Amino acid sequence: MPGSICDILFSAAALLGAPEATDRLGLPAPARRVVVLLVDGMGTHLLPAMHADAPTLAAVSAGEIGELRQLECTFPSTTPTSLVSLGTGVSPGQHGVLGFTVNVPGTDRVLIHIFWHDDPPPQSWQPVPTWFHRLNTAGISARAVLPQLLVDSGLTAAAYGGAQFRGVPPAADYATDLLAEIHAGPGLIFGYTSVLDSAGHAHGIGSPAWLSAAAHVDALLTRLVDGLPDDTLLLVTADHGGLNVPTHARVDLDADADLAAGVAVVAGEPRVRYLHTRPGAQADVLATWTEKLAGAAQVYSRDAAIDAGLFGPVRDEFSPRIGDVVAVATGETAILASAHEPPQITDMIGFHGAGTDAEMAIPLIVVAT
Could you tell me the CATH number of the domain that includes residue 23? Predict the structure, then answer.
């Protein structure tokens, strides 16, 4: 079985001497610095398509630079869930960030985690201490170099709370700032780039825009590899993979009266839908969705989804964030909700979120100096 995204900071912390940390991944040691770069959307299955425009990544895949391993992200295979799983080292059922969007229990509100600030308060919505907090509390420096716009977000607090932050303005050279922080001293240094994921959503995986983003990622990786100080371990990973969804494989629940019947709140995302039903309607919604999406999605009740272990063990206080009915797309299906979501979602070409290998398998590139 491959390791998990939850294991990365556990292992990094162990190399840095943190109490209660174990090296679950068997990383090269010793290292005074551990650099973790997360490339949003760079699933393992997408690496071959990047090689022509990404010579350093191609060299990694060929065994010429570092070591390429495979891990899995947590479910759903979506950015907020994965980032918090990385930061805390626990599964979504334990940290509570259970999807791209979730219903705030007791309300009709849908929380979009990437646009979240301080309502609900991050410390109560996601109460698990991050490894950044644990390291800094233990006297081991843990820093995060992020685009300036992300520094004060709720998701940043949930995933990297307790880190020493370095915000990078939009016009600045991100690689320069990241390398400066790496050279500033020992400890854990985290970096993040979203260019590949953004291009995949908007233009499609394999599109010219996506290949240009792949080249951008490769240039960043090349500069890091060339500029690392001695006694440094670089770990490059991702939060999920993805796939393109053709028009014929899209289902719009808001254009189908049968699918919309009995549904009060729609959350999740197109590859994993959380349906919060009207009183007494759960059984009917479950039966209708099971019948109409046969062969296109696996449909669960909330209890069945939890019992199947999709989210890992789920804390009781977090279970209402999961829909009364959960529809997990299979194959290349996307379940749109055109009346509930911005048109940018409906217009996307690349998607992720479900449990296929193309979405769940993520690389771990290990480079030691």
Answer: 3.40.720.10
